[in-house]
Design brief:
This protein is α/β, with parallel strands linked by helices and 212 residues long. It is built from 7 helices and 9 strands. Helix 1 runs parallel beside helix 5, helix 5 packs antiparallel against helix 6 and helix 6 runs antiparallel to helix 7.
Length: 212
């Protein structure tokens, strides 16, 4: 059975922030175990359409009340509307992320989603990053001593990234899940970071070498 990575979607979610990650997870080419992975979307309510910040309509496969850590390989939380609000627009998603972390299932949060986790105290004792330290400080959280000024940070089962680092976010997710062999992953990253076409050949050669 495929292992499932769940992507949280909601009105105004930043569709570009998780795009590299979910595309790589869903597409078997160059993967260490092709066909092992699948992506499923999770919304506030099952089958209730949401519209991304980029104008894409998404019909969630599941509602937040239907996912369990035991059935998931990772929960991905993109940025977007509402994470900084005081009305707890994403309270269910944040609580679900806490359940995942408590049960040892990884969570990956980028941009505004890190603010939601900060407000809930989930960054108070873990190394983490975000858009800027001042951005998280504005939430009133107690984890500023653990803030790291880096594009992405992986610590204690939690991946955090700034909104300017979707490539680094995807690379950390692929590494955490073991999607690609190390040489393939590095070639993938350099391909999209530099735009050099020879990186694609390196990625293909690395994948073929891993299969031998």
């Amino acid at each position: 059975m495929p292992q499932t990575v769940h992507l949280y979607v909601f009105d105004g979610f930043a569709d570009w922030e998780a795009a590299f990650a979910v595309a790589g997870i869903q597409q078997p080419k160059f993967q260490r175990w092709p066909g092992r992975w699948q992506v499923r979307t999770v919304g506030p309510w099952r089958h209730a359409p949401v519209r991304s910040a980029g104008g894409l309509t998404v019909v969630p496969d599941l509602g937040l009340d239907q996912i369990r850590p035991v059935d998931s390989a990772m929960l991905i939380l993109p940025g977007g509307n509402g994470w900084e609000d005081n009305d707890s627009a994403h309270m269910w998603a944040v609580n679900k992320a806490g359940d995942f972390l408590d049960q040892g299932v990884p969570v990956a949060a980028i941009c505004g989603a890190t603010a939601g986790l900060a407000k809930a105290g989930l960054l108070d004792d873990r190394n983490h990053t975000s858009n800027a330290q001042a951005y998280l400080d504005a939430t009133g959280y107690d984890g500023s001593a653990f803030y790291r000024n880096e594009p992405v940070v992986v610590a204690s089962g939690l991946i955090t990234a700034g909104g300017m680092a979707p490539l680094e976010f995807a690379r950390a997710i692929f590494s955490e899940l073991g999607i690609y062999d190390d040489d393939v992953l590095e070639a993938w990253y350099q391909l999209y970071k530099t735009g050099q076409p020879d990186c694609y050949a390196r990625m293909q050669q690395a994948a073929e070498g891993a299969e031998v």
